[in-house]
Amino acid sequence: MGLELYLDLLSQPCRSIYIFARSNNIPFEFKHVELFKGPSNSEGAGKVSLLKKVPALKDGDFTLAECTAILLYLSRKYNTPDHWYPSDIQKRARVDEYLSWHHTNIRANAPKTMWIKVLIPLFTGQPLASEKLQEVMEGLSTSLKQFEERFLQDKAFIIGSEISLADLVAIVELMQPVGVGCDIFEDRPRLREWRRRVEDAVGKELFFQAHEMILNIKELSNIQIDPQLKEQLAPVLMKMLK
Amino acid sequence: MGLELYLDLLSQPCRALYIFARSNKIPFEFKRVQLAKGQHKTEEFRKVNVLMKVPALRDGSFTLAESIAILLYLVQKFKTPDHWYPSDLQKRARVDEYLSWQHVNIRAKGSKLFLSKVLLPLITGQPLPPEKLEFLTEELNVVLKQFEEKFLQDKPFIAGSEVSLADLVALVELMQPVCAGYNLFEERPKLAEWRRRVEEAVGKKLFQEAHEEIMNVKNLTADHFAPELIENFKQQLLKQN
């Protein structure tokens, strides 16, 4: 039994791992976890990761959660090209710096666009909370400004001339608002160019394959969502609107 | 000009850095940045970290933000003992896993409880409503349970038998709600034992020294804060609540 990756491609961290593994030809078994199909379907992932979340990795007896940890584990175990996580101490520090900052900045607001625009209405039947969406978009705007000024600047990629884990983790997160119709790249030419470079670096076909689900998020409305899950999640989701 | 660390020991990530550097006898110049006085918003500090946050590092012309990045940079540059960030693939992954998870869990909930309990009343002149306190405490309790069950389990430290960056980062964060008056170690003997082990591993005296300011945080009065900050904090905290 080889490497198993428990993923749902609706989830941003899952996409970064999927793209990274495929782009580097890392052999793995794709264990599809459908987050919205409820407990019975995600039992596999539940057993793997005590936190009952995706992404999760299982390598023999070893299990691992958290996107950054999984990406780093894969880069080390499979000796991926240096630029992904450079051995140069300062370049590496730039990657670490972004990966850390990401959690409470880009990742604080980008995911909420999907929750507010698609999932909350779907799960609770409540109409779109447009004021809350605006708040989220403003927060995201602030993060994007800092991203451009501090992390990307005038470079091709975050560490310089080559793509790294930092760019990959950033881009998948920013595709979430794009998928639900909040195209943050529209008025940001520098980011748009960076996105193009990242897509080219990982392979356009792979990039789009990984993003097929999120770019067709409207199909989600037709998915039969587990009623038990709906009941469980509704109060949690409503809290998110406060 | 050698290594400079820009720190305010009231801040948890600053304490992790301070303790790590001192514990490993890494030579550095302590550059104090008093958050309460708004010193993180000066033009001078902005040159070190344009994001205007502590901690920050300056090593010659190289500047770096984010405590995790700085800790890893110090590990690599000063070749600290292996256990801090083990070369063993799986142990290292355990450390990475915790360092990633903690941002929006232990750190977020611990900070929120501290800020709401200590800072908010100071700024608004109103005590924190009991139901709010209860809610924030419960949120922290949930992640504490996850910490014990998933990360610590029955091991002496997160990565196994030796202390690592993960334990240090975890403990300094937990000291924040403790110093706000929530004695979370009291009814958690396993955590209390782990705390004792971490303190011993870094050096009890150093640990106490690093926490002196935050332990006296209840003595802070509103006039300790620069007036421009008061309004800023007020907006931030009210939005969070």
From TrEMBL, chain A:
Q: Name one GO biological process term.
A: glutathione metabolic process
User: Among the entry's GO cellular component annotations, what is one?
Assistant: cytoplasm
Indicate where this protein resides in the cell.
Cytoplasm
EC class (word): transferase
The Gene Ontology terms for molecular function here are: glutathione transferase activity
Q: Can the keyword Endoplasmic reticulum be found in this entry's annotation?
A: no
Q: Which UniProt keywords apply?
A: Cytoplasm, Transferase
Report the EC number(s), separated by commas if there are several.
2.5.1.18
Q: Which CDD domains match?
A: GST_C_Theta, GST_N_Theta
Q: What is the catalytic activity of this protein?
A: RX + glutathione = an S-substituted glutathione + a halide anion + H(+)
Which Gene3D superfamilies does the entry link to? 1.20.1050.10, Glutaredoxin
Which Pfam family, an example, fits this chain? Answer: GST_C
**Domain (GST N-terminal) ranges:** 1-82
* Domain (GST C-terminal): residue spans on this chain: 88-229
Q: How does it assemble?
A: Homodimer.
Protein name as catalogued: glutathione transferase
What's the name of its gene? GSTT1_0
Automatic annotation (TrEMBL), chain B:
What protein does this entry describe?
glutathione transferase
The entry describes its oligomerization and partners as: Homodimer.
A GO MF annotation of the entry reads:
glutathione transferase activity
Transmembrane stretches, by residue range?
none
GST C-terminal domain spans which residues?
88-229
Where in the numbering of this chain does the GST N-terminal domain appear?
1-82
- Give EC number(s), comma-separated: 2.5.1.18
- The organism is Lonchura striata
Q: Name one GO biological process term.
A: glutathione metabolic process
Localization of this protein:
Cytoplasm
Q: Identify the GO cellular component terms for this protein.
A: cytoplasm
Instruction: Describe the family membership recorded for this protein in Swiss-Prot or TrEMBL.
Output: Belongs to the GST superfamily. Theta family.
Q: What class of enzyme is it?
A: transferase
Where does the signal peptide begin and end?
Answer: none
Taking the first listed entry, what is the main subcellular location of this protein, grouped into a coarse class? cytoplasm
Entry's PANTHER family? Answer: GLUTATHIONE S-TRANSFERASE THETA-1, PTHR43917
| Entry keyword set | Cytoplasm, Transferase
Q: Note the InterPro entries from the entry.
A: Glutathione-S-Trfase_C-like (IPR010987), Glutathione-S-Trfase_C_sf (IPR036282), Glutathione_S-Trfase (IPR040079), Glutathione_S-Trfase_N (IPR004045), GST_C (IPR004046), GST_C_Theta (IPR040077), GST_N_Theta (IPR040075), GST_Theta (IPR051369)
